[in-house]
Design a protein that fits this description.
Chain lengths: ~270, ~270
Amino acid sequence: MTDDGRPEALLAALEAVAARAAVASRLEPPGGEAVLQSVVDAAVVVFAAEAASIAVHEPDSDRLVIAVAAGPQGRAAVGLAFAASTGIAGYVFSTGQPLAVTDVGADPRFDRATAETTGYVPRAILAVPVLDASGSIGVLEVLDGGSEGSNQLRDLDLASVFARQATVAIRAGRVERDTAGLLRSALSTLGAPPSPREQAGATPVPDVDLDAAVSALARQLDDEGGARLWTLADAVARARRASSDQVGLVIEILEALARRSDRPAPRSFRR
Amino acid sequence: MSIDLPAWSEPFAEANRERLRRGGPWGRVERDWAFGEATGRGVRVAIVDSGVERDHPAVGGQLVDSVAVERVGDDWEVVPAQPMDVVGHGTACAGIIHALAPEAEIVSVRVLGPDNRGNGGAFATGLWWAITESGASVANLSLSSRSDAYFGPLHELADEAYFRNVLLVSAANNVSVASYPSLFAAVVSVAAHDLAAPDAWFYNPQPPVEFGAYGLNVDVAWRGGTRMIVTGNSFAAPHIAAYAARIRAAHPGITPFETKAILAGTADNAG
């Protein structure tokens, strides 16, 4: 970037792409969201429920946000956000422990305030965690399932199957969502949007190691202790600059790792 | 329809209970001998959960200590806490234990709260305190960790509890991701059966979930002095914890291994 004119032009182009990507993703929701919607649609039918919803955790605000909902009483809940460690959904999310409430009782203070904002206060709640390898990423709730006398234990197991589908859908949308976020953060780090003073003359691109900055931002996308998708992606991307000797070393390490992974894990058993 | 559910409750369901019938090496152990009229006096039970509401009528004034795990910088610390419950779940467990073992003392170790959401570090720190500092000989764990990063530390803690003569009673988790410590051999792992009977439990000779107890449509205490009807393995574990406390009260000095054997011998399917 020796030409003084090019950084600004590149930045402007990136901004333009980012703006259009943001708008396009609103016009055409990611494929994962459509699957997520179909999961709650199916849950409402199977449980003959008044509503079913999936709340997804937003790490930045540490809130659960209802991403999709279905059923006669469910649609008003979309977009509702609540603290990730309180209420029935918060408990299930925080502990990963499925829970069914058959009768919330006469004075259900647990999350009445939240429920009332949707205009609907349920009597019965079935809540199961949406989990991936790193832990809870959301909560699936079924409200007022209508099957009288149904076995709640069996229902919890069945709801967990729906939750597994939700996991797949959420993970599928992750790369798309994170890429947009990474682009926004990178532009912000580079000083965009430029202030009027910067536009007047001074170069808007600060003197930073761009690749190192993007590398750090990418790694921040991974939760602590979670599945480290972006950390791995970053490492692989940076390794592309390695010499052929270094690449040979990486291959040897990967092959050793693959041999180790092929062994049966002692704790991967099921019943 | 056949779905492979991670259904730890299935062996204890009515249709499958006949298969649990067993003589065992010594036949049935009489409950009169095992715990008889013992009320849990002299035994302290730690509840590692969302806190316990001291003034809830169902707790009967038996809450003797409350601590919470808090984040301090990069570390976790156990600090004195208000005798309150951020969800209601810990109070539910305390109420179940108090109903069955009315003179057992209860210690609350709150591992949920702001910033502690689903964090294996908070859970492990609270569990460590329950084992080493609380004075409890029974600990009820109606929650668990799904973080692979905490497999090792929690395994170590489960062994530490066993060697320090503290019985860990852990709710099994019907989700698709392995959860700890409920799958460890050193703990008493509990799922829910489908009987409406607080005094019925079953021993399953096929680990990892060895006990089935009352967890379907249980009337429990909840936050704010309320009660709710709930279902989940979370509520089965404290039933076994309470009987374990009574066994330990009736036979001071017995070990976790002996307590587990007596629980198996007094189970409804024994003899």
